[in-house]
Amino acid sequence: KVVMEKILWRRSLQLRDKQQAWQESPEGRKMLELRRSLPAYKEKDALLTAISRNQVVIISGETGCGKTTQIPQFILESEIEAVRGAVCSIICTQPRRISAMSVSERVASERGEKLGESVGYKVRLEGMKGRDTRLLFCTTGILLRRLLVDRNLKGVTHVIVDEIHERGMNEDFLLIVLKDLLPRRPELRLILMSATLDSELFSSYFGRAQIIHVPGFTYPVRTHFLEDVLEITGCRLTPYNQIDDYGQEKMWKMSKQAPRKRKSQIASVVEDALKAADFNGPGAILVFMTGWDDINSLKEKLHANPLLGDSSRVLLLACHGSMASSEQRLIFDEPEDGVRKIVLATNIAETSITINDVVFVLDCGKAKETSYDALNNTPCLLPSWISKVSAQQRRGRAGRVQPGECYHLYPRCVYDAFAEYQLPEILRTPLQSLCLQIKSLNLGSISEFLSRALQSPELLAVQNAIEYLKIIGALDENENLTVLGRYLTMLPVEPKLGKMLLVGAILNCLDPVLTIVSGLSVRDPFLTPFDKKDLAEAAKSQFSRDYSDHLALVRAYEGWKVAERDFAGYDYCWKNFLSAQSMKAIDSLRKEFFSLLRDTDLVDANTTTHNAWSYDEHLIRAVICYGLYPGICSVVHNEKSFLLKTMEDGQVLLYSNSVNAREPKIPYPWLVFNEKIKVNSVFLRDSTAVSDSMLLLFGGSFSKGTLDGHLTMLGGYLEFFMKPAIAELYLCLKGEL
Ligand code: ADP
Ligand code: MG
């Protein structure tokens, strides 16, 4: 022990000397000068004192004041100065991969180091971390995974949870776990950082924890709403009665008198605004879009524009969660004189990433989680209106270096109707995956645990999730994880997708299953343009032979793969009404899912290919059934066609772009589906036809309760629809025949 201590002491001294040498070097001095200009630097001593005296400290400060890049660094520097460099271990969580990566790189360079020395990062499937890494930026998910094997975070001295104002599900979850951990680890320090001022909630959650506010400064920002934009551009504004979700579209249409066909509504609105608005003086333009797909479609439009696509005058960049790190660095660079930088960003640029030279902001008013986030277990959300707080944050980005201008591309009355804050994620998303995670961390009763959240989800939502997990066989009657449940916790995807992957791996038909699971995680690759609906639906049905949207997707993807090899992927998509972006996304998701599976023991770790090219369609059908159960509906044939019924909803309908919607008859008794949506009637999205025996063997589980006279959900279903043949088979399986 004494020897060990000596080694650590020596190591700590070395670290201190190295740090001092950098700080005294000319580059180090210059960097320090730059850092000193950030508001957070002025609070350095107060922050460090507060952290040394309190177990929990909450720091709020305007975006760009230096929370993320400076505060973890202050702690690291002061630990190194105090010759504790070799024994401290600081973890700073970020809600998104891209911020963990870009911030760690920035901090390393501010310390005159390469990534992986004292500063590193770790996100899923990627990381840069060395033996001497003392400050680690990681995603919240990574820390949660670490807690799985290391409940007490042994050796960690500081945990910093960043961007808590976003109220993501993972962050809220982490806070409950950390709150439990604090009494067990009295020397551990917890620092929470928020970009908004409403820190009271967090403070009272942690027993009136100290709040430190970093005062920021922004220049005034002139604000325009859509009506002002129209006026500036000389468009006539006809009065409108009602603003719905398409308010923007309506106004633009009306102002130009003639309705126009639009591929991406938001992209078109922004394109018009970019062309029309008059950006006086130098400064970058930051455009808030909803996601990767919008950004891409706007990018294409702008490239085609003679003015905005001219690269000698415009530097067009994107900023979203799935961009490459080389792309990331570019957004911070200042363009050459006479070149206008335009950054198309998702809400990532709202508080996570600060681009310094922004003077103009265009805000489309909507946000969504990117489709790629499926990997982080976030269900795909449709774009929806942002909150007032978000709109203010977006506006604030324009006033970093000088007075700026913000164009909100929606009418003021829409803004007035925005919610003050966005609802925390834990209150608005299904909790199945979260419940599984609670179980895998051995945190006891799910509902008891969740009742201790910052804001607890509704009891009904929790019960629904638990019930669902029992039905799919991930939890047993006593809410304990089953073997299946344990496997599912290893795959950070929705349980139904995880089930398909697992059984696909076991049955050695992974290739098509990877395509299906990836396809369900991205935006629907089958496009149905409003004016070419029939053509598009006909194009889709070419891929259908077997009453399955999921298998149609597999065929479409395989065709694309072949075309792509001849560099004809785009043509193929164009001809077949497929989204090339979705196809590419599927391609990369397949790889990610495959490497996830290699982390389990179900796929041989040395396997590099998963190309079981020939596969049995019935087998895939069974795998789909295994994953999608209990999403089942019964097919009831009448003379001319068929009706669909579920137990809960009665009659349901198919979306018109489902291949099954074009079939006069379906020679199967059931459909399994992955999503149902209530509009006026209940509509099923993608569906696959399955047989009785498939449903029995790959659908619901026959728990012990069945034999005791209780029907499982599947049993109830069968009884409800009185299918004689299947009832017989069922009774036979129950051992009663
Ligand atoms: P906060 O977390 O308070 O929003 P940050 O610490 O992220 O603030 O940013 C502080 C400053 O550092 C900002 O002015 C930002 O533009 C700058 N910055 C952050 N990352 C980089 C980078 N990779 N390159 C250049 N400047 C950066
Ligand atoms: Mg930050």
From TrEMBL:
Helicase C-terminal domain boundaries: 269-442
Domain Helicase ATP-binding: 48-215
Entry keyword annotation includes Nucleotide-binding: yes
Gene Ontology MF terms in the entry: ATP binding; hydrolase activity; RNA binding; RNA helicase activity
Catalytic activity: ATP + H2O = ADP + phosphate + H(+)
Its EC number(s): 3.6.4.13
This protein's UniProt keywords: ATP-binding, Helicase, Hydrolase, Nucleotide-binding, RNA-binding
Protein family per UniProt: Belongs to the DExH box helicase family.
Name the record gives this protein: RNA helicase
Organism: Prunus persica
Range covered out of full length: 282 to 1018 of 1180
